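ok trying this again, last paste got cut off
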Amino acid sequence: MTTTERTEPSTLADEREMLEGWLDYHRETLALKCAGLDEAQLREASVPPSGLSLLGLVRHMAEVERTWFRRILADEQAGPIYCTDADPDGDFHPGEDDTWDEAHTTWRAEIARARELAAPHSLAHLGAGRRNRDTGEPFSLRWIYTHMIEEYARHNGHADLIRERIDGVTGD
């Protein structure tokens, strides 16, 4: 497992640097919640009755990165990674043959692709993919960054509880 370090964004950063900084901070928080655990622990659904595991959260965030940056921002025809018609929540349901190494590598690749797709655009850039189902409006890169920070923050709260139940480790 690789060493993970987090850096809080500067309190003086401009808007883009701050949004990207907080998104990276939350990405690394999820990685920290998984650090030092073995394959069985990463699969453990430790907060009954929920079946949620750290492995499932990482797989889910790979899907979320793909959806918002590849499908919605760039309008790439990138199909789901783990979800299927038979199991629309397949990201949360790793099978016996699914591994941490595969999920972690896939998640990191989706993060790298997200950065690549966002880099040339201003925060006001409107995504070319799916529009808001309620308003019909496109999503701006600013909105996507803000949503991604919220998504990671919420799931990092889940990861906190799962990790604490596995081995007692707590922290932000």
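PB: full thing came through this time. The chain has a mean pLDDT of 94.
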